[in-house]
Design a protein that fits this description.
By secondary structure, the protein is α/β, with parallel strands linked by helices. Helix content is about 40%, strand content about 20%. It contains six helices and five strands. Helix 2 links the parallel strand 2 and strand 3.
């Protein structure tokens, strides 16, 4: 039985960092960050690019699901609307696969602090703060679990997710 672990949340909440820690905890895994599927310059969100990114994500996730090497497939992306999540899931070959979806959240203040740190380090542009804060409340209406990452290190959040999955971690 494979496990598809889908982590959503606003920009800056720690999705990528938590997935990197989950990679260290879980056997036989592969990781896809949805942002890698449309890393373009200039970044353009259009109907065409939105369709393309979903197609890219679905292709890669289905490839990972079919590969016998992988027991755990880690996927993170903003996924702030149920329609996005449902669109991806409806196109995946999920035979003999458990799906775990969790939205990572934190307080507005902590999210701003994390994003300010990224901006200062040159990893993000200042406009990300407003966009991320606008998305934050949307996660409370999505299906799946939620995890407040406030005050947690990426490792601690990964351990909590492993516990939610019923996986014992030393």
């Amino acid at each position: 039985m494979k496990t598809l672990i889908m982590l959503g949340g606003p920009m800056g909440v720690g999705k990528t960092s938590v997935c990197r820690e989950l990679q260290k905890l879980l056997p036989a895994n592969v990781f896809l960050d949805g942002d890698w599927c449309w890393d373009m310059r200039p970044f353009a969100v259009t109907d065409e690019t939105k369709k393309m990114v979903i197609e890219n994500i679905v292709f890669l996730l289905n490839s990972f699901l079919k590969c016998s090497q992988y027991q755990h497939i880690l996927f993170c992306w903003v996924m702030d609307e149920q329609e996005i999540l449902d669109s991806i899931l409806s196109r995946l070959s999920l035979d003999n696969c458990r799906v775990f979806h969790c939205s990572l959240l934190c307080s507005e203040r902590e999210l701003q602090e994390r994003l300010q740190s990224d901006i200062k380090a040159g990893k993000r542009t200042p406009d990300v703060i407003e966009r991320s804060l606008q998305k934050l409340p949307k996660y409370h209406s999505l299906s799946g679990e939620t995890l407040d990452t406030g005050g947690l290190s990426p490792r601690e959040a990964a351990e909590k997710i492993a516990q939610m999955l019923g996986i014992f971690v030393l």
